[in-house]
Amino acid sequence: MVGREITADLALRIGESVGHQHKNVIIGKDCRTSSDMMESALAAGAMASGADVYLTGMVSTPTLARAAFDHSCGLMVTASHNPAEYNGVKMWNPDGSAFDSRQMNEVENLIADRRAVRTDWKEVGRQSHHAGAIQDHIEDVLRSLGQCHVNVVVDCGCGATCTITPFLLRRMGCSVLTLNAQPDGYFPGRQPEPTEEQLGDLRQMVVSKNADLGIAHDGDGDRMVAMDENGRFIDGDKLLALFASLMEADGIVAPIDASMVLDDMVDGNVVRTKVGDVHVAEALKKSNFPFGGEPSGTFIFPKESYCPDGVYAAAFLAKCVAENRLSELVDALPSYPSARESFIFQPQERDIARGKLAGEMANLKCNRLITVDGWRAEYQDGWFLVRLSGTEPKVRVNAEARNKEELNRLMNLGRGIVKRCLK
């Protein structure tokens, strides 16, 4: 939270650390009330370490990541889908991928040892403005996707995509109506995370205006979810499967909690990763698959960038809807019942719980046990996942199956394991 964990001093130290390693840094920001402060502190720190700094102003995260192509690295001031009182810094490589764990550790070590990043007064960097990042992003997408003509309602959530998605879709030839299209760091229209519960206004607008499609972004535009022409919410899991199908992908990268519908779309050629788009991007580089993403609504198109690009995803979906109704496209996908449940434990018992769960799951009889992030037990007609939350003292159980009877069996199996381990 800003003023507690997130301070100007911390941003200064992050800037110092990154500037020590990268001498050409581009910085973007979302519209949060604290983003100006964070941007200034990051820039000052980077210049103090000898780096030249280029400021894009307010842009979406995928816009900043694309702009980093011509720089040593990019820094994006945003808390993404989190509420207004939060902020943070995302770090990007020139290929659009987020800093990996090794790079993050290097930055953290330099933050802890500020003496390592100080420079002489003669070597202090310069600051200038980088114009054209938004227009460059728009032109890239237009070259890739071309024209389409659909009626679209775009809910920008008062976030950074106010600067790009409506304009891009109009350039493509779409008729565009907007909701929450004024940047406002208080997010008065709705919360930054585009959950179904937050999108009642979008649903109403799509239906009342007979639109072909509704689009909603999070605060910084790395996420995208949709509404079909009937006002039905289409979540990230469905969109992952739909994109894989429409692209005729020969394989896909997705996190451990993504639907087994993906296996149906690509004949089981799914690489499962830890939860987090940085892990999806890393696996995409190794696999050379054409697409990857997460059920949260992040989608990565490696030919474009290794950054999750909700702006490109919105344009791609509009292009698809120009040829077929979204409801028909989604209804043609397999759909399986799923369930999830959470179990609370005492924070000090995390290591004990982890050890017990590992032991129980290792002895489980299943077709395949995936352990990259928790334990995903796969069977012929379904799967369940037991995973410790990374942010809360909770164990989460997710399950999906081809029928409700198997779903109930798998949920009971996972629930029983967790309850025994948390006794």
Question: How does this model look, in words?
Answer:
- With 423 residues, the chain is of the alpha/beta class.
- It has three domains: 8-131, 3-Layer(aba) Sandwich (Alpha-D-Glucose-1,6-Bisphosphate, Chain A, domain 3); 134-331, Alpha-D-Glucose-1,6-Bisphosphate, subunit A, domain 3 (Alpha-D-Glucose-1,6-Bisphosphate, Chain A, domain 3), CATH 3.40.120; 338-421, Alpha-D-phosphohexomutase, C-terminal domain (TATA-Binding Protein).
- Helix content is 36%, strand content 21%.
- The chain is built from 14 helices and 19 strands.
- The chain has helices spanning 8-21, 35-48, 61-67, 101-112, 133-145, 165-172, 200-208, 236-246, 261-265, 277-287, 310-321, 326-331, 350-362, 404-421, and strands at 24-29, 52-58, 73-77, 89-92, 127-129, 151-155, 175-179, 213-217, 224-227, 233-234, 252-255, 270-273, 292-294, 298-300, 338-344, 368-370, 375-379, 382-388, 394-401.
- It has a five-stranded mixed beta sheet, sandwiched between helices. The chain has a five-stranded mixed beta sheet with strand order 7-6-8-9-10, sandwiched between helices. Strands 15-19-18-17-16 form a five-stranded antiparallel beta sheet, covered by helices on one side.
- Strand 17 and strand 18 form a beta hairpin.
- Helix 5 (133-145) packs parallel to helix 6.
- The protein starts with 7 loop residues before the first helix and ends with a helix.
- The mean pLDDT is 95.
